[in-house]
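FORM 7B: Structural annotation worksheet

SECTION A. Query
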Amino acid sequence: MSMAKVGPSIEASGVSKIYGAGTAAAVEAVSTVSFTVPQGQFVAILGPSGCGKSTLLMMVGGLEAVSSGNIIVAGEPMTGPRTSIGVMFQDPTLLPWKSALDNVLFPVRVLKRRIEDYREAAHDLLQQVGLDGFEHKRPLELSGGMRQRVAICRTLVYDPDVLLMDEPFSALDAISRDEMNELLLDLWQQFTKTALFVTHSIREAVLLADRVLVMTKRPATIVEDLAVPFARPRSMALGENREFNEICRHLRERIEESHGRSRALRAGATAWRRGGKVSVEIPGAAPLASILAISPSLRRVRPIVLPIVTAAAALLLWQFAAVQLHIPSVILPTPIEIARELWLALPVLIEQATPTALDTLLAFAAAALLGIGLAVVLTYSPLLRDTLYPNLVFFQLVPKVALAPLFVIWLGFGSPARVAFATFISFFPVVIAAAVGFAGTDPAALRLCRSLTASEWQCFLLVRFPFALPAIFSGFKVAMTMAVVGVIIGEFISSQAGLGHYILNAGSRLNTADVFAALAVLSGLGVALYGAVALAEFGVRRVYGRH
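SECTION B. Predicted structure
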């Protein structure tokens, strides 16, 4: 796959952008901007923060509509994002569940091209930017500079004709920023794309660009179009050049003039901010810390060992208290008596647990499908969201147990009534958690999708749904617990079988040990179903990690 095509030109004529046009709160961000970018040229847009640089870039990329004027790329007016334009945002915008390699290949997947045709190019790009051996690392395992390198590779892998870069290195420290500038110089000199680069760093603009467009404060317009005279290839050593520093000084003065500031005012406004850290050394603290330190192997098993040890200690205390205080078995049997009863009644309890488990699974499945379906509708319909979501929150506060007899009246004394009631009370955690998860999707990730011309379905499937998975599975875990509770309540009211019926029957016989035995089986069933949800969460996350 060739990656050396020359990009088309960009033409902007009288472009303006007004947010909230026609209202009292209208804000003009960009005013009558005109410029052209010849094929294969690197142009920097320079100006201080908040002057409209990013807005202009997003209009060129089709991610913001122009209020007036027009933008033409490759001879065609911009009406929306294009696959021929690659956008690199201020944040790396890496998908956290994907590896570095899968993040690089993400545009290929969105564009529905064959992954295998681009895998070698992705590996080569990662190697060129110094990430050989980090292909399978997740974003959390990479430094800020590494994440930006992955973002550069992602922008280049599908070979767009135009590169739009919105202050991609602004969040990096000075050393990392210099490294990224040098890397970008090398890559651009290799691929020679048409590029628009937004920055508020004067030295960065002069180092990277063939031309620098200087923008005024908002409403932004271009006050100078400066050609950078230095030949390519370039290196960071250019920063020591006298002419380089003269150009930087000229650009700084031009920006200050356009913002109504003078050098004297800037010098007079300089203030010093001092700070420091106070360290207090406590004698003997280091040896104590080493004693209390937990080894990594022990830390891994602690979540398993501590609950077991705590439960065992509680059972021992229970046994001791019941024996020493001579508590009657009908009030509080000892754990040994409960274990004996559990062993004797286990076959019957397993038989009774079967209908309880089946009804619970049916209720949970129905609640999951209905809850996620409604959450999707709420996400994409503001009208329904404003209408229904407050009512859903209100119903969360209603004591739903009081509604159980209504389901018996409506559906009779059978499994349908129990399943419907359990579905009803377990539905709300799913829909609320899923709606919150979908709404909490990283806007930058959705913007990345749209810059790649992804459909709404692709945005949902590839970004919104995976981002919401933690919230959805949190809702699932609560819903599974609520489904068990709902089925048991239904069995209390209208059943001749199941663990709920068994508990009622044992209680009527004052066989408290049998009640506790049934509760032990019910607890085991609940833990097993909860564990199944947790296992499904692990499996789904692994699947999405590969896509």
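SECTION C. Observations
Residues 1-8, 262-281 have pLDDT under 50 and may be disordered. The chain has two domains: 10-84+160-261, 321-545.

SECTION D. Sign-off
Analyst initials: ____
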